[in-house]
């Protein structure tokens, strides 16, 4: 398999991307890795080491974080992101990974890679940590702010296939994000979606409240991009505040500092449970090729995780499975 890496996208590019590819190349010698970006920026981080399964694809332009997505994709046709997308479209790469501008990556997926037949709107599907360490795949978390019931049905089908093919879950539990667990709760979108999911060929477990998401009550969480993104930001904010309060309390006096020293291993495990690096690599499901979004602040570890997820999805035949599910629809 061949995986193209947007070497210029992300806060720590191209260092993190290049070093991650070097690690991945050693761990998976059967995989070809293509670093896409400016050769002069990539080479210093290779430190004279270019494994036989790593190549560089020159792409002189860079899509910046503050670029307007669609305009950037259309004008910067020689950018690392668009070049990687074109490689997936043309079949010279089986998948691409980018930690760059999320909107631009979505535009690249739609305008360059293209949608799968039968898919109306691709969805961004990151993994969220859960108390049982299994994680929950949530989609859509921001690719589309407005959605119809039919779109959420497609998210449910694609998300279920992703957990089967990438994580080996035979019968993924699919939940619908809502304000209550009762079937009659919610707005018109969730009520209509509930009926569709009840009759879909998936293991639908009903409505899920946001407070229960991290308890591991479902394997796939379906929601529209607006509600999903609000939930995601709320979870991130709550986690950040919690750690700040803990730090303040555990450094308040010498007794607290002593207790903190004794509990340090436990706190480290808690942080690991909530670390996005352990779950990095959100696919844009519904595209005619595998396009994976890495967190903008991805470090080397996070990029390696994204590569691992991508390899597993390719090995499991994810795109082919989604094509088969929606063929003729």
UniProtKB/TrEMBL annotation:
<dbReference type="InterPro" id="IPR012281">
    <property type="entry name" value="Phospholipid_synth_PlsX-like"/>
</dbReference>
<comment type="subunit">
    <text>Homodimer. Probably interacts with PlsY.</text>
</comment>
<comment type="function">
    <text>Catalyzes the reversible formation of acyl-phosphate (acyl-PO(4)) from acyl-[acyl-carrier-protein] (acyl-ACP). This enzyme utilizes acyl-ACP as fatty acyl donor, but not acyl-CoA.</text>
</comment>
<dbReference type="GO" id="GO:0043811">
    <property type="term" value="F:phosphate:acyl-[acyl carrier protein] acyltransferase activity"/>
</dbReference>
<comment type="similarity">
    <text>Belongs to the PlsX family.</text>
</comment>
<keyword id="KW-0443">Lipid metabolism</keyword>
<keyword id="KW-0444">Lipid biosynthesis</keyword>
<dbReference type="GO" id="GO:0006633">
    <property type="term" value="P:fatty acid biosynthetic process"/>
</dbReference>
<protein>
    <recommendedName>
        <fullName>Phosphate acyltransferase</fullName>
        <ecNumber>2.3.1.274</ecNumber>
    </recommendedName>
</protein>
<keyword id="KW-1208">Phospholipid metabolism</keyword>
<keyword id="KW-0594">Phospholipid biosynthesis</keyword>
<dbReference type="GO" id="GO:0005737">
    <property type="term" value="C:cytoplasm"/>
</dbReference>
<dbReference type="Pfam" id="PF02504">
    <property type="entry name" value="FA_synthesis"/>
</dbReference>
<dbReference type="InterPro" id="IPR003664">
    <property type="entry name" value="FA_synthesis"/>
</dbReference>
<keyword id="KW-0808">Transferase</keyword>
<keyword id="KW-0963">Cytoplasm</keyword>
<keyword id="KW-0012">Acyltransferase</keyword>
<comment type="pathway">
    <text>Lipid metabolism; phospholipid metabolism.</text>
</comment>
<dbReference type="GO" id="GO:0008654">
    <property type="term" value="P:phospholipid biosynthetic process"/>
</dbReference>
